[in-house]
Write a structure and sequence with these properties.
Blueprint lengths: L1 H17 L6 H7 L2 H16 L1
Helix pairs in contact: 1-3
Length: 50
């Protein structure tokens, strides 16, 4: 679940950047597609490595 939390943190960062209110963590995990989750998790790994 830690990887999803990192992905969620990246998602929230992008929402703030674009002035969009993020959904909460529960909905993030349950409503986003596998492709969306994978993308946010991949980006979170890249950001973490920077």
């Amino acid at each position: 679940m830690t990887i999803y939390k990192m992905g969620y943190d990246y998602y929230v960062l992008k929402c703030v950047e674009f002035g969009v209110e993020p959904i909460n963590f529960y909905y993030y995990c349950s409503l986003l597609s596998k492709e969306q989750l994978d993308h946010y998790n991949q980006q979170a790994q890249i950001v973490k490595g920077s």
